Structures are given as C-alpha cells and as structure tokens.
Input
Amino acid sequence: MSHDLIKNTLLGRLGNPMLNRLDDSAVFDINGRLAFTTDSYVVSPLFFPGGDIGKLAVCGTVNDLSMAGAEPLYLSLSLIIEEGFSLDQLERVIRSVQEAAAEAGVTVVTGDTKVVNRGAADSLFINTAGVGIVPADLDVSSSGARIGDKVILSGPIGDHGIALISQRERLTFESPVESDCAPLNTLVKEVLQTTPHIHCLRDPTRGGLASTLNEFAESSGVGVRIKEDKLPIKKTVLATCELMGFDPLYIANEGKLVAVVDSRDAEAVLQKIRENPYGREAEIIGEIVEDHSGRVIMETRLGTSRIIDLLSGELLPRIC
Amino acid sequence: MSHDLIKNTLLGRLGNPMLNRLDDSAVFDINGRLAFTTDSYVVSPLFFPGGDIGKLAVCGTVNDLSMAGAEPLYLSLSLIIEEGFSLDQLERVIRSVQEAAAEAGVTVVTGDTKVVNRGAADSLFINTAGVGIVPADLDVSSSGARIGDKVILSGPIGDHGIALISQRERLTFESPVESDCAPLNTLVKEVLQTTPHIHCLRDPTRGGLASTLNEFAESSGVGVRIKEDKLPIKKTVLATCELMGFDPLYIANEGKLVAVVDSRDAEAVLQKIRENPYGREAEIIGEIVEDHSGRVIMETRLGTSRIIDLLSGELLPRIC
Output
C-alpha cells in the first residue's frame, strides 16, 4: 500500500524531479547561510475553518524559516498515518500541501510515510522540516531588541486557536472565525526590503502573542510595553474568549508576525505590512523599554498596568 | 511541562549554542551541494536489543544522508509524546540520541515537541530530518548501476527486524539477536575515499535487501544477479526466519549498506569495508547483468534461479 500511496497520491500531486527520484536524500546546491527548522503537526480536528493539517504543516515551516529572515526553499514531508485512515481525506490533505507550497514557492523534495496500526495514532500526524537561505548581512533573533524599538503586530490575534476550538466545541457564529493560517514569506521579504533595522521577528503560534513577547523580553534582556487598545482582535474572537474564559493574548496564530523595529523605521514598516494581503490590519502595539527587564507589561483600556506572564502549561492541546 | 521538558531533559543532554537559542530555525553557513532527508520513527517496542527509538532516529537519518554520499552535519529532532509517557523512558531515549549523535559526529540544532492526549499516539514517535554536504564531484544514485558492476553487502542481513520481532514475540535464544542499528557515515567516507567508481549506495532498511536491489534494477534499467551462498546471515536470524515463515531478504536492516561498484575496484572496496567495525563480514554478493533488466535473480544453493520480487505490502509493521 505504501508503495502505491507514494506513487499515486503523493507523487501525483507533489512530484518534481528531486522528489521523483525517491532516493533517501534530496541533493541540491546551496551557497550561503542556511536556515533549518522542523515541526510536527498533531492538530485535531484535521480540517478546520480556514485550513487543514496539510496547509498548516507547510505554512508553519515556511513561517519558521521566514522568521529567521530566510527565503524558504525546500521542505521535507513525513506522514504518520493510522491504519484505516480515509484515502479521500489523505488526498484532501495532500492537495492542501500542494496549494500551500505553490503559494509559498517552496518545493517538497524528500519525504517519508509510516503506517501504524489502528489506535496507535489519531488519524494523521505530519512532520515538515525545511531549509532556506538567509541574506548574508541579516541578523534577526529574539535577542536583538533594543530600548526604544517599536513592536509591530501584523494583524488580529487569536483567529487560529478560536477557529479550532469553535470547531471542536461545535460553536456556531453569525460570522464564523477562520484560521489565519498563511505563508508569510512574501510579507517578511517585503519587510526586510524596507529597512535593515528589523531586530526581532517571530510568528506568535503556540502560546500566542504573550509567549512571543516574553521570549523577546527574556532573550534580549529588555522590558516590553504594549497597549491593550492597540491590539487588533476580531469581535467574534473576543466574544468567544470571554465566553470560554480564554485570554486572546495566549491563543495561537498561524498567519501573523511580530516585528521589533528601530523606531525611526517603524512607520515605514507598518505601511509596508499593511500593503500585503496578510497584513492589512497591522498595528504598532507597543515598544521596548528599559524598565521591568525580562517582563511584558500591558497598559489596559482602564489605564492600569498588567503583567503578561509566560503561560505555564498548554492552554489548548493539539492546536497545531 | 513542555517548557521544562525542553529546558531540562532536552537541552541538558543535547544543548549546543545553536539549539540553546531556541529560535524557530537554526542558522549556519553552508557552501556546496546539500543533502536533505527526513524520517519518522514509530518503532514498537521503543527499546529493543541493540538499540531504541532514539538511536534508530539518529542512525537512520545519518545513514540516509550517507547513502547520498553526504557528510552528515546537522539534525532536527521532533518528538510526539503521548500524555503520561514516562519521563525516565524519555530520558533514556534522549541519552541514546545524544550518544548516537556523538558517535556520528552530528549536532541536533533545531527541534520541536508535541504532547498529545492519552490514546492519541502510542508512547513516543520521533522525526529526525538531517542535512549534510555532498562532495562536489560525487554522483551516487540508485540509477547509476552499470553492466559488470559488483554488488557488495557490508554484513549479515535481517538482524534489526529479527531483534524487533523476537522482542515482540518474546522469543528467547541462547545467543539473542541484536539490532545492527549503527551510524554508517564513517564507513561510507572510507568507501568513497577508496575509489570514485561507487555507482549506487543504499542502506537496506524497510523491505530489506530485496527492495534495495529491486530499486537499483528498476532505476538503473539493469538486471541484478546475486548468489545465495554469498549472503551473510546469522544462524539465529536464519532459524527465526524459518520458524516464523519470513524470508531474510525482506527483513529490515539498520546498520548495513549495499554498494554497486565498478568491478575493477570491487576487491579494494571490499577490503576497506572489512576494516571498519561495521563491515567485518562484508561480501561481494553478486553483479549487475544485462539480462532480465529491471529484475533481481538469485542463484540458490540448489543451483536453481529464483526471482526476488519487490514485496507488496509491509512484512513487519512498525519496524522503524
């Protein structure tokens, strides 16, 4: 079955000269600084408003590479399939992989499939690893934030997590929340072309915006100060969070980025982000400060200050 | 839990400057031809004579890179952990990862952990992807075999599969079979230094020696002819195969290689392989022929000829 599955479903959709060789490794020329990343996807349900595990697996890895400033080039795709999993659903997932890879301009060059006995895995897990090229003079890292820098968020938070949880809990809304799952490599490229003074870049996935900002604060040894009234959040997302007792700051996103930028360039970067389809609702949400080093503080709408802690434990399991 | 797990268990054992940054991507300089590969490991049981899932995950990916002629450099490590999985066992697995990586001279530079609810995965799955550098003038591929070439096997077949199945079925032997799980990068390097005329190189894992030889025959458009009396097989492995109705040609190996070599260099390569601890029992097992293109034929001990077909379906599930 594995052999046929590979030949028909996988190569049929994803085939290219490198993958078609079916050698154990893909081989290609590279010169420069390589970014290398991996993620396993165990999202449940597999299909959700705005995406599925296949789209997520491509976008997640493309975005991890992009946040290192890299141009994503090649992906690996490894499937762990539960015996009895529907071939139709597998086809749908592979079609999503194909579409997302095409949009991001990346190629799946190597892969693996394992079938496990019924009950040994929940339907389908996917691992994607990826490689990309980082421009020679670039240095973005979560440790690069400097006092006075501005913090830019590319759009409303919480969509992915709330889309998932709504699907799981069978909540219905007048305007259903869709996952923001999207490849951000073009957006990142445009940002990096605007100014060399991008100090940190990260996609706030698991653990949400709060975790990303805490990483910046901790790694850079600075304080982060954000304003609640600047945070873009969709009404339905906010309402669902209130209903279910979630804080949107901790909800996963799969198509957003947070950039820490030299204050002189912040407006130009903001405008550039807003010109991209995935960045229309971008905002400058705060700044890097000398006070409360290692901590994130939010000025609330009420004018008070609130510490935004790193969450211990996972808020929503199997969100990606 | 994830956060502590990463900081203590994973970084404690595997820590290095790149991994410790905990950025989403590792970044390093590369110049040349890159080999890139991935494999997910779902082996059951996790611990078996001669290895465990951690050692297997490192060796498997190191070997996939090596078979492209690459020097393996960097690995990613992604864990899917079932909720409630023992931390002690996880520590043992990570220790094996550490030891195998040290022996192979590779570094784990990026990773991911996902915890799924109880029952959604069977204990622990691991994905490793890897990158390595291929010497500029090298061209090994399963399509490179030429008429007259010799086929060299680096040692006895079937040890990994039989070690696994014996553990599962609780068979006991006077001399228990251990998995041959081992990193072959040094052996490959030595082989490639002996002669530039290595045409194919592959590790006969899932599907065993039979599948590897069939790949060579099909991809190269040649016939492969092997001699049964030249095949190294341990007595206990042979006995277990007879007992359980398996053909050792189809049993997985995790520390063996098959090389197709220009006949003029075959003896020199054989001697070189035998000097390596993982190749002491190497043999020239056959040759590439013009007849029966695309097929593998074995001359049996009885003097008859037998077609060695590609196996349809998986003989032993979750062997790696």
